[in-house]
Amino acid sequence: MNLKQTWRRTAGKMKKATLFLFVFILGITLKGFAQSTAPADFFAGKWEISILGSPRGDVKFATNLIRKEGKLTGELVNSDDKRPITKIEETAKKMVIYFESSQGGEISIDLDKVDDNNLKGSLMSFEATAKRIKE
Q1: CA geometry: angle at 99 spanning 74 and 133, to 5°?
Q2: Do β-strands 45-54 and 57-68 pair in parallel, antiparallel, or remain unpaired?
Q3: Within 13 Å, how many C-alpha atoms sit on residue 133's CB side?
Q4: How many C-beta neighbours within 10 Å does residue 57 have?
Q5: Euclidean distance between CA atoms 91 and 113, whole angstroms
Q6: Residues 53, 126: contact at Cβ < 8 Å?
Q7: Average pLDDT, the chain
Q8: Cα 53 to Cα 57, 121, 123, 125, distances in angstroms
Q9: Interatomic CA distance for residues 20 and 107, integer angstroms
Q10: Could you read off the pLDDT of 23-63 as tens digits, one per residue?
Q11: For 71-85, what is the mean pLDDT?
């Protein structure tokens, strides 16, 4: 076998390897784009949020979280008053609701997804739960 034949054989293998690598990377890229579709708006909707063992006893808030301009918003309503939500931070499995407390400072309710209709977390050191209100 001479040098020219060896070179052709090697070049042919390189072309096949390059083509295989290109198709492989293209496939991974397309699969990544296919999975980046917008997720369902899990946290939007009506929720009943319960704070257990607070100094005021067990407190229940009702809220209807609505997405406006890409951000969730709403207000916390209980039998005594309404508290506007100042901001909400969310990830796929967690939501943090910020609102003004009756003492005048901003506090947060941290809630993690348990299943499709339940959240669990805390407000300061108190246990918090949320249940989706089905209409």
Answers
A1: 40
A2: antiparallel
A3: 13
A4: 8
A5: 10
A6: yes
A7: 84
A8: 5, 13, 11, 9
A9: 55
A10: 778 777 776 665 434 446 889 999 999 999 988 889 999 99
A11: 89
Judge whether 91 and 102 are in contact, CB under 8 Å. Answer: no
Helix (H) or strand (E) holding 11: helix 3-34
Amino acid at 59: V
Dihedral Cα 53, 94, 113, 40, nearest 10 deg: 140
Q: By mean pLDDT, which of 38-42, 45-49, 83-87, 125-129 is the weakest?
A: 38-42
Contact 46, 63 (CB under 8 A): yes
Question: Rounded to an integer, what is the distance from CA 99 to the centroid of its chain?
Answer: 19
* Cα–Cα distance list, 103 to 6, 106, 110 (Å): 83, 9, 19
Lowest mean pLDDT among 17-31, 88-102, 116-130: 17-31
Global pTM reads 0.68
